[in-house]
Design brief:
The protein is built from two helices and 28 strands. The chain is mainly beta and 362 residues long. Strands 2, 4, 5, 6, 7 and 8 form a six-stranded mixed sheet that branches. Strands 10-9-28-27 form a four-stranded antiparallel sheet, with no helix packed on it. A four-stranded antiparallel sheet has the order 11-12-13-14, with no helix packed on it. Helix 1 links the parallel strand 4 and strand 5. 33% of the residues are buried.
Length: 362
């Protein structure tokens, strides 16, 4: 099906740059590998929605590192290294499916080349839904992802139903957080934003409080369940018993998860009013640090807001977010307005830029 080119395909977020290819006489290193295209997961959108096919896509090369630019079709034809700026889309983004409960499906194909001429291709499944034509019970909830600190969503899609709990995590180690759905003790893990679940697991009890973190520092987020002040941590997204059991804080504490010291391992913090008792290891004991921030009535969020590898706090008041880049008392480093006061909010790195931002769910 030919692509109907409308304003729905926007590349304005791409930073165009130039990089000189290696001279023809330059010797190709014997261990040179083609670049790796990161982030091309499956995605679902509503017909006619804005969709930037390069959002969340990045390229890494063993010799060029992260410096490969986005290049135009003309630059690609001339042999320039980089990520080609015009991926091939095999489906109309504006035509709704004839049957509203099903999706038109296709793919997006990406190409990248390193400075020695080694190239690679990656494909991303895409489903286009007739969101306007669906019965109300089928529309589910809509996610509004924001890759920056502005008031406008970078991407929206349908995922889940109002009665399903949603948690965000990097389930496959690709540095992009996506949303898992929970029903009781069953978790559905998607392949990408808005795609169908490609993994279903069971963990814990329906009455457990669920936490998400990288408990062993392997770059992959997994689940933990809380029962009072006892935390049952699982290191893989599979069925089975806890790999570790940790006792921390009191049964009535509010609990937060983050990498407080930048060692790559998520640990626990408990909140009492506006005091946060941070523990840097998954062991019993007293807090390694106590931080005071915000008000006792605030909703608290955790994220790596500035990409320094350490998590810190943010507090929410309505649709206003007060973001602190360090684990210290004092005024917010950033204040931003996003979404509505009644939105459910989630935190994650949606585009593999090493920085956490917000998403809201309606």
């Amino acid at each position: 099906m030919p692509l109907l080119r409308r304003a729905v395909v926007g590349l304005s977020s791409c930073l165009l740059a130039t990089m000189a290819a290696a001279p023809a006489s330059a010797a190709v290193p014997p261990d040179n590998e083609p670049p790796v295209i990161l982030g091309p997961e499956a995605i679902g959108i509503c017909a006619g929605d804005a969709f930037d096919p390069l959002s969340g896509i990045s390229v890494y090369d063993d010799y060029d590192g992260w410096d490969l630019p986005v290049v135009s079709a003309e630059e690609w034809a001339a042999g320039m290294p980089g990520l080609r700026a015009d991926p091939s889309i095999s489906i109309s983004l504006t035509e709704a499916p004839e049957e509203p409960v099903f999706a038109n499906t296709g793919d997006v194909s990406y190409w990248a080349r390193d400075s020695y001429g080694a190239d690679t291709r990656s494909r991303r499944w895409i489903g286009v839904y007739d969101c306007a034509g669906r019965p109300a019970i089928d529309t589910g909830t809509r996610i509004y992802l924001n890759n920056a600190w502005g008031p406008t969503a970078s991407h929206t899609f349908l995922w889940g139903f109002p009665w399903e709990e949603m948690v965000a995590g990097d389930w496959d180690g690709d540095w992009i957080d996506t949303f898992a759905l929970r029903q009781g003790s069953t978790f559905q893990i998607p392949q990408g934003h808005g795609s169908v679940a490609h993994l279903t697991i069971s963990y814990g009890r329906a009455t457990d409080t669920v936490l998400v973190g990288d408990w062993d520092g392997d770059g992959v987020d997994t689940l933990a369940v809380r029962r009072g002040n006892v935390y049952h941590l699982r290191n893989t997204m599979t069925n089975g018993p806890a790999d570790k059991v940790v006792i921390y804080g009191r049964a009535d504490d509010a609990v937060l998860v983050g990498d407080w010291d930048g060692d790559g391992v998520d640990t626990l913090a408990v909140r009492r009013g506006n005091a946060y008792h941070l523990r840097n290891s998954l062991t019993p004991g007293v807090a390694d640090q106590v931080v005071y921030y915000g008000r006792a009535t605030d909703v608290t969020l955790v994220g790596d807001w500035d990409g320094d590898g350490r998590h810190s706090l943010a507090v929410r008041r309505g649709n206003v977010y007060y973001i602190k880049d360090s684990l210290a008392s004092g005024p917010a480093d950033t204040v931003t307005v996003y979404g509505r006061a009644g939105d459910e909010v989630l935190v994650g790195d949606w585009d593999a830029d090493w920085t956490d931002t917000l998403a809201v769910r309606r």
